[in-house]
Records
---
Amino acid sequence: MKICAAQTKPFKGDIDRNIVSHNRLIDLAVTFKTDIIVFPELSLTGYEPILSQKLATNQNDKRLDIFQTISETNSITICVGLPTKNNSGIQISMIIFQPNKARQTYSKQHLHSDEHPYFVNGQHQVILTIDNHKIAPAICYESLLLEHSKKVFKSGAEIYIASVAKSANGLTKAFKHYPDIAKKYSMIVLMSNCLGHCDNFESVGKSSIWNKNGLLLGQLNDINEGILIIDTETEKITEWQNN
């Protein structure tokens, strides 16, 4: 199976423009016969909590139909980031499109303290199954909590996909944590990070993949958009960046 981390520089608050840029990277991932592509946290709006109330929508938003079409046409699972709204409030969510399946929404279960004024916690973990592999999504802060990785491991997850928006300081913590949980739970760990200004910090890319032994197999730079793919059987890495 091939899994892909997408690294994007979002247009602040512009869902339509971000859909176009997402589709370019998805089309590229399709040429490499990728099975699943994961985008950064809140990738379709940028990480902008102050705009979340205005931008929040849901998985049935007609603007997202293009992702379902691409998923079914090319047999690829697509995971994009978006603020969603329900009766409990606004959530930081990942919308998941799979071939010939109903869309799913995974919402961040563990929020950072800075996020509480804008968002409410998600309540349920999603575990995806692709080619008999179980894949667990995590969104930024919660991916650095041992309780989250332990929970998904107990659910049978073999692959951990972290969709994040992280500064240089955040990456310092991530680059210590992700190899440890990869080795501890024998899980492939993939981190998809964005680029550019987010809320009150700069996100610095360096999307990465670690194998089950905690070895860093591939990493994008801190400047360019691109994709990073691992073949889980051979551990071969494919990298493309928009120079």
---
Amino acid sequence: MARKKRRTGAKRRKPQKPSPARAPEQTPPAAPKPAPEPKEPRSGLQEPRRKRVVLMDLPYGRIRQWEFGLRRWRGLKVLAAVLVAASLMGFAFGLYGLWHWQTLRALKQQNHELRRELEKTVALKQELQRVEQLRRRILYLMGALSDTSDSAVLLAMARQMDSTEARPRGWPAHGLVTRQFSDLHPGMDIACPVGTPVRATAPGLVAYAGADSLYGKLIILKHPGGYETLYGHLSRILVVPGWRVRRGDIIGFSGNTGISTGPHLHYAIRRQSRYLNPLPFVKDTLTP
């Protein structure tokens, strides 16, 4: 029984068939490995990595990028700042030019209006002269005046004063004599700044006050005794023909009008259509 148990308990091993020998697989030859680069010896301090700026653009699904170094990026920022500053300065100068142009246009318009007002003033002055002549004519017709001519008025003035009082004397304006009386220059030139007051040197009547081709703005006064005084190259006239003036009255202001080489007053004296040397008259400052 013991033998049976041993036989039954032992398993029989089946003989294994030898497996067919497999052909060895052929593997591709391996690529030669590159020789390792020699490593530099590490120092105690590591080299810092350079900072860079990357700009990316995504137009229609494509990626575009620009890479700049930090120094170049700073340069681009400085250039952009300079361009922005230049643009702002150009805009400011443009606004200033526009304002200046508008101001100049307004000044031109104002100048044009002032010219029109001046033309109206001159026309009004001429109208006043015509009215004054008409008034004197009406007074003559009414019998208030025996005669409206200048000679009659001067004769009436001569009756009220003596010959020494009607004689021109004194300086018509303060200044320096730059040209004396001569045959080629019938008068005296007194250099003085533009705007110097010009005074009548004797009582009389305004015979002419207007423009002259040679003496510019000119005033001619007639005085009792046959004297006439001329004031030329004026800048402004304050009297009109027919007015009576006294000695020392301001009749205008000196200027540089007409044929003149500089600001001065041309002063001349004539009697019975003959010019006299004004020097003895201006030096005669004694009161009658």
---
Amino acid sequence: MGIIKKNYKDILYFEIEGFTFDENMKHLFTTRLGWKQNNIFDDLSQVISVPKEKIYSTRQVHGTDVIIIKEQCNSDVKKVEVDGLITNIKGIALSTYHADCVPIYFYDKVNKVIGMAHAGWKGTLNNIAQVMVNYMVKDFSSRLKDIHVALGPSIGVCCYEIGEEVAILFKERYPYNSHILVEKDNKIYLDLWNVNMVNLLNAGIRKENIYLSDYCTSCNTDTVFSYRKEKGTTNRMLAVISLNQ
């Protein structure tokens, strides 16, 4: 699996290979090419054909709280401090900001439910993937076998060096999954994709229903932004999912 490069005029965006199986659902990951950072939602509205006021985002705080959107509303959810969004409303889009953290896309193909989550090391450690699945099952009667999940571009194990304190947290939380940490040249690297894969499998998601972009943001700063590689850049990509009308 991997990413599919798409263009809208001079705007480059990605789709995740394999996650394009249902025309009722759209998803994408923005890049640094063609998108205007100060008007990114204007650009996004054109690309996905969803009015800007129907594109939902929140204040991300590296937690595991989730907002459920069950009706279109005018309230400013951008002020809500959560890292996950779920809805079954057609014609709106859910989005999260990224510059190394893992975007996790969720889709129940039977009940037509979508979700979007932001998973940095804290959200991954505390298993936001499981939280999202639990809400889909509880609030929308999703069956585990019907939920498909995609892991979008983020910093890869090739580049994500961590300190001993963070490594200890993951060793304690995942004592039987030593493959999530790689030690080389006296340094420790964390595999965020693998940890989230473990979390999803433990949550009951079928392995064949998980799609991995396998695209490292730190290795590809010609097309995407990387907070780590670019030493604290304030630029961000958007991960987006929507249900067609």
---
Amino acid sequence: MAEMKKDKSKAPTPLGRVLIIAGSDSGGGAGIQADIKTVTALGGYAATAITALTIQNTLGVNGVVATPPKAVRAQMEAVLKDIGADVLKTGMLGDKLLVETIAEAFDEIARSIPRVIDPVMVATSGDVLLPQGAVDAVRRLMIPNATLVTPNAPEAEVLTGKAVDGINGQRRAADKLLNMGAKAALIKGGHVPGDVIIDVLATETGEHFFDGPRIVTKATHGTGCTLASGIATGLARGLVLIDAVALARAYLVEAITRAPGLGQGNGPVDHGWPSRDPEAFQMMFAKWRPA
């Protein structure tokens, strides 16, 4: 009998490896940079497949240089053949062809690896990051079989066609995403008016609600990337989904609260706060440490 080749894209136990497929942010607050900082701060190992170079700062996006789709797939293959991954996390994906290329790679070389899909469409500054032609490709190819989809309210509206202006709208959008094939959907409430932010997590077994007071701040650049990467890291380290979401939210709240106040526009959060306050971080992480 021929010897079976070892599948290096899988691991018998979670090792905290997150392969991030997303664009870079020259300002360092969002995109690949935010993803790497978050994964590292939460004790994971970040690898990347960069989909685009964005020319941006806290004031806005001044340009985007797309990575050729073949090069994005080649990055994914290089990582998965050698290092492997426990979770895949997507961010800015670019045009329709790139979405199709990444989806094909998922099916052919990473079918068994859990996926956290952050459908990045618009930057905090308001700049469009996902062309309309790619939105349908995300619906058809990224939502089905996703372990988790993490849209904010405007993104959820675009993906589902459901109005998301309150908790009932969040619930309807989450149900729609489950019907589209996602295993779970987290509809974030940051864009929903109110003094309390409620994030709605819908899974195949029920709903869960996470809430907290709205923090009045300009330090909102990269919060979506940070939350999704935090969840991906929790899953990669062996946490169940609900605990991974709770951990990522707690980490993000602290990062926003401790934001350094950089830039003239929507500034970055403090991704590195655990290294400066390890005692507080250990107390937080201990609540959801895997068995």
